[in-house]
UniProtKB/TrEMBL annotation:
<feature type="repeat" description="TPR">
    <location>
        <begin position="253"/>
        <end position="286"/>
    </location>
</feature>
<protein>
    <submittedName>
        <fullName>Tetratricopeptide repeat protein</fullName>
    </submittedName>
</protein>
<dbReference type="InterPro" id="IPR019734">
    <property type="entry name" value="TPR_rpt"/>
</dbReference>
<keyword id="KW-0802">TPR repeat</keyword>
<dbReference type="Pfam" id="PF13424">
    <property type="entry name" value="TPR_12"/>
</dbReference>
<dbReference type="InterPro" id="IPR011990">
    <property type="entry name" value="TPR-like_helical_dom_sf"/>
</dbReference>
Amino acid sequence: MPGINQSPSPVDINATLDQLERAVRWSEAFQLVFVKCNHPMEQELWHHALLERLHDMRVLNLVLEQPIVSLLDEITARWDQVAPPQAVCVSHLEESINLQRETSPVLGRLNHDRDLLRRAVPATLLVWLPDFALDCVARGAPDFWAWRSGVYEFPTNRALWQMESARALTPKISQDFSLPLQDKQQEIARVSALLRSARALPHQDTRGQETIAHLTTRLALLYCSLGQWDKAQRLFQDTLTVYQQLHDQQGIASAYHNLGILAEVRGAYEEALEWYRCSLALQEELDDRAGLANSYHQL
């Protein structure tokens, strides 16, 4: 559609890379820089592009493959005293934040160790994070966050978001419910990240809104599989709102049905009956035989 930016322009990307390169090259002391990038594939791409620009400098590239408690310990363990780094790039710190959010131990340590970190790293510290993790840092390590020299952003590419969302919607419901606990938590983190990326996109067409509804439904079902009913209900309500905005009667009927199942599981039988009746009424209007059969079965 005219006037809608479908993906970040190369000019915008290069401008951000220019700013980051200058921030590193012009600094001879500690400075804290955050780089916001929501999509993992894009983060890897732009991270590599920045390292290419800084090829003539000593850069400690710290990729955190596993959750950590102390960023200071991770950096000092790799610090070269003979040829000290002129910059430190940290990625995947969100893996240490995902589940406990702003109460994550790593954030408490960042706040506590901030003076030690500043003395130990007399160079630019670049921390790459998605937006949810930046929010957690601001709340969970406010004193550390206050030291930031800047926050630079690489906007999400819509085509990549659609592609990744399609992958996330491939598994069947039965597969999600049979996943081990750790795999369920990883899927929750992945789908949640995609939904956060969607909110960062400037515009959403009908297809994008439908994808958001499908992702939200899958996230709700994952929480159902963990018995986290309150979170699941909020997400099913969010799905219903999206379908109502789209005037998607089939989607609305499906959301009613899911809310009915959730109410039934929780023992709220009168509420469940009301949701099932709402779903049944819409399915009768749509002459949806399969939907009618499901609603009659639940009733």
